[in-house]
Each structure stands twice: as C-alpha cells, then as structure tokens.
Design goal:
The protein is α/β, with parallel strands linked by helices. The protein is built from three helices and 17 strands.
Length: 166
C-alpha cells in the first residue's frame, strides 16, 4: 500500500478518513470520530453528518461534497465534487398547524455514480446501478438501473450495464 497517495491525493484522503471515522464510531469513540469528521471537512472538503450512514464509497474528486443528516449511502457509490445530498427545504404543517421544514434525507442504494454538481434532495430513494448526471437536481424517486440527465430529471434509459465491470 502506498501511504503517499493517501496523504497527497484529496480523494484517497477523504476515503481513508471516512473509513477511519466509521471504525471509531462503531467502537463508540465518538469524540475521536467527530475530530476525524472535522479533519475530513478541512483537508478534503467533504462535509459528512455524524448521523449519516455511509457504506464503502469512492470520492472521485474531493471538495464541496455535503452528505447531510440521516442520509444513507450504499456500497460502491462514486461521488464527484460539488455534490449535495440533503433535505429539500419543503415546508409542511405539523399536527398543531405550525409551519415547519421537512427533514427527510435521501437513500442512495449501491453501485451508483453521482457526477459533479448533482443535488439529491428530500426523502427519496435512488435505485441500484443508477447514474446521476452533472448538475442534476433530483427530488423524486429514481428506479434502479437508470441514467438521469438534465435539470428535468429525465430518465434517459434503463442502464443495462453492470457498474461492477468498470
């Protein structure tokens, strides 16, 4: 294993710090895991919420990545720079009639690719083997094996490819 690439390349540093954070959190070393989150944010530009559940992900390019709240991300997901995964900002009324913001976070299943600048917002599910194009704003559920492009969330085709082959 080449230690230099983990130190000098932002993407490898981000992946390493995320895995270290997960190990510390599972061992209930919460203070150290929060320190690792701050290091991740400052050195790699990846803001990861303490409550987010993240599988084995790949950060293709660090910087300006936000994974908020209770988002869930499966294994083998590739995330490029400028991606936001978080709440949609939708408003709703509670039982008492008080206006409040919905705090639902996305679920991204395994084997997905999320390209530069994509925004995945709200309590939605992105199916397995889905590709989200650059600068797409996704606010609705996307079925498995899809390719999503443009700002209109157009599903171009069923993705017949196995992303594990790439």
């Amino acid at each position: 294993m080449n230690i230099a690439k983990y130190y000098f390349k932002t993407s490898y540093r981000a992946e390493f710090l995320i895995q270290l954070y997960k190990k510390l959190k599972t061992k209930r070393l919460y203070f150290l895991s929060k320190l690792i989150l701050r290091k991740l944010e400052r050195s790699a530009g990846v803001e990861l919420s303490f409550n987010a559940k993240v599988g084995r992900i790949r950060i293709a390019h660090g910087k300006d990545i936000v994974i908020g709240g209770t988002s869930k991300i499966g294994d083998n997901v590739t995330i490029y720079n400028g991606v936001t995964i978080g709440v949609s900002g939708r408003l709703s009324y509670d039982k008492m009639g008080k206006l409040m913001q919905l705090t639902e976070y996305p679920i991204i299943e395994k084997n997905c690719i999320i390209y530069t600048g994509a925004k995945i917002l709200g309590g939605i599910t992105i199916g397995e083997n889905t590709i989200i194009g650059a600068n797409v704003v996704v606010k609705t559920d996307i079925p498995a094996n899809s390719v999503v492009s443009n700002k209109t969330e157009t599903i171009l085709s069923d993705n017949k490819y196995d992303l594990n082959d790439f």
